[in-house]
Amino acid sequence: DLYHPDFHDMWQYGIHMLPCSKDILDKNIILRPIAKKIIQAYEHGDNIDLNKNLAEQAIQVNKGCHWLNQQVHLQTKSLLDAQKLVGVVGGSHGVSLGFIKALSNHYESFGILQLDAHMDLRSSYLGMTYSHACVMHHALEVPSVSKLVQVGVRDYEEDGLATVNQSKGKIVTYFDKNMKDQRFEGTSWKKICSEIIHQLPENVYISLDIDGLQSWLCPNTGTPVPGGLSFDEAMFLVSELVKSKRKIIGFDLVEVSPGPQEWGGVVGARLLYYLCGFMHVSLREIL
Asked: Do residues 213 and 267 make contact, with C-beta atoms less than 8 angstroms apart?
């Protein structure tokens, strides 16, 4: 059933999903096995730099990912130029970068609200420059991105923590443990959401990695982590963001993997529907 109390007739807004490009699918068929081989080599402790063949294959994968970013950039820019409201669905979190760059052509400054179990601040991961673990590192290189606010982080390395601490406030991370401690000690989720939203500028891009949620909601995602936000906590945060009069200028929903029982797909579909609705409501005044 499609009724939602915050957007009653959202199914009439004209939601449309473009088919995935055949060129992208064809490249995926070629490059996915190569990437898997590189990952397995790292897992076995091989030194990729000393293996000329694997090093060359890593370059091939990185070129393919760069090409994908360009394709996402061109397509999303075209849709934004046509005054469409745009969201990107993945797949790897790496698909978000091209869209973030496209938004920078339309907005002089905006912040990113990232719901995620991970920081994604590595410069490269397992030999791959555009890995899902690197997307926010590259997003912060986009001049229009003025702030990154991360929520739900609970699996991170010391280098990532150092990057946050050295960012002079450009990156603000709300760790899952700290938020849970506050909740256990009596702080309301509404108050925590208010603090999070206070960190964000007027224009906000939402990056929702499904592993930011509790792992039972996404059991087949690639890197599930115990803990995380409930579905309702995540959507309440987005709802409060809209009530604050901030504008959701775009979003991504990534790392969704339905699995044999399709539960992750059900959760992902609901998130996608709600994100479309909240973005529309937040921009209603200028539509």
From this structure: yes
- Cα separation values, 260 from 33, 150, 209, 218, 264, Å: 22, 30, 20, 12, 9
pLDDT tops 90 at residue 258: no
The Cα-based distances of 171 to 117, 119, 228, 241 in angstroms read 15, 10, 19, 18
Name the DSSP letter for residue 125: B
Q: Quick one: average pLDDT of 221-235? A: 96
pLDDT score of 49 more than 80: no
pTM of the model: 0.95
pLDDT at 287 over 60: no
What residues have CB less than 8 Å from 47, skipping those under 6 apart? Answer: none
- What phi, psi does 156 have (nearest 5°)? -155, 165
b/e per residue, 69-102, with b = 16+ CB within 10 A? bebbbebbbebbeeeebbbbbbbbbbbbbbbbbb
Chain-centroid distance of CA 176 in Å reads: 17
Q: Of all residues in the chain, what percent carry a pLDDT higher than 70?
A: 98
Distances (CA, A) of 138 to 23, 95, 128, 188: 24, 12, 13, 34
What distances in angstroms separate CA 156 from CA 20, 119, 161, 242, one per listed residue?
32, 6, 7, 29
